[in-house]
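Lecture 7, part 2: worked example. A protein chain together with S-adenosylmethionine.
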Amino acid sequence: MTFPLAVTVTAKQTGRYLVRAREKAQAWGLPFLERPRRTPLEETLGTVADALLVLTGEGWKLHDAQDSLAFSPGMGALRIKRLGMPGQPQDVLARLCELKAGDSVLDGTLGLGSDALVCAKVVGPSGRVIGVEASLPLYALASEGLKTPPFEDSALIEVRHGHVLEVLETLESHSLDCVIFDPMFDLPKRSTPAFHMLRRYALHEPLDEVTLAEARRVARRWVVVKGGRHGNELTRLGLTELKLSRFKPLVWARVAPSTA
Ligand SMILES: C[S@@+](CC[C@H](N)C(=O)[O-])C[C@H]1O[C@@H](n2cnc3c(N)ncnc32)[C@H](O)[C@@H]1O
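Predicted complex, written out as structure tokens:
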């Protein structure tokens, strides 16, 4: 039997890693694979497990037969650096959400957290950011990578595993300032190897009307939806594309909260 996903440790394992990795495997409901010292991952991948979450000295990595993926603030870090820099355009997401210190945001499609990191920086330590990720391996990478705020004066991101609709249904009406969605685009754009790997493990479910309605119930300022320029996510949901720039690969829509 091959496990779809399992947990193990780096080949340079120490007792410390073993204890942590075992605890995490149990918390994530995944099998823990003992790894004989210095055994290459290739011997396990495809035979014992299709993919492995590996605890290394640099944190958790997701490995499969094709590639590996680690948490990195990546684009989020770049966007944060540009926030408030003279001569730099305002961050589109922060602008559309009209985000300010102390705000609360739910990111319904967390991925590896670039958008959530930007929100966390803008709302600051007095604000609140909840990130929801449906894919277990991506949740594992994001929740471990975002355990401490990677940037000064950021809110700590509360990472939850599950379908965003299930999380929204637990929340009071108009209890958060903004809800944001960045679902997987129906037509992928050319991207980095890391994004290809994220695509393989991501949930490719389009945003639906029920989830959007729940987001409008929970939000008190805006629901913001990102789509691909060549996709039809926004029109399918009856949303109007905002006129931002004709040359960007992304399109955006912003919906007011429901009045009920
Ligand atoms: C395009 S990525 C998000 C990238 C993210 N906005 C960022 O800035 O790094 C979309 C992510 O949302 C997750 N996702 C898709 N549908 C979801 C749902 N209904 N509930 C929770 N997560 C979902 C996917 O697994 C994927 O990781």
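The pocket of S-adenosylmethionine is lined by residues 108-109, 111-115, 132-135, 138, 163-164, 182-184, 202-203, 205 (CB under 6 Å). Residues 74-255 form a domain with the Rossmann fold fold (CATH 3.40.50.150). Keep this in mind for problem set question 3.
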